[in-house]
Design goal:
With 97 residues, the chain is mainly alpha-helical. 64% of the residues lie in helices and 0% in strands. The chain crosses the membrane at residues 26-48, 55-77.
Amino acid sequence: MVKPVSTGKMAANPAETVQPAVLYKLIIFAVLMAVAPIGTYFIVLTYFTKGNTIAAAIAAIIAANLVLIGYIVVAWLEGPPGPIVPPSPAGEVKKNK
């Protein structure tokens, strides 16, 4: 019988591996992906092209691609996660030697 072998990442509690900053970035870019192209479309349609829907659609496509590129750049520049330090018991105090 074969026993499965787990690595340290797989054995770790998933709640310990989730970083709040990553989740916040994902939420921000998801909202931007929904708002930026639609907003760009209507702003360009109303104020810049006076009804030219093709130019407004092209501007919306460019806005969507800029949001995607921004997300990729932010993800690329994000450093690797630091080591996960287990919390120490409440009564334990470190002593310097």
